[in-house]
Amino acid sequence: GRSLVHHVFLDKMISAKIVAVTLVLAIAYVSAQIQPTCKMPQVFEARMVSFDPNGRVYHNHSSEYRLFSRYAYDGINLRKRIFEEVRFGSSPSQRYDVLELHQTKQAYVTNLGTRECLIYTINWPFIKHDIPTNATFEGYETLGAYPDYITLTQWVLPNAPGRGGNGTRYLTFTQNGCVPVRDDFFNNATGFTYEEFSDVTLGLHDPNIFFPPSGCKPAPPPQE
Question: What is the pTM of this model?
Answer without folding.
Answer: 0.77
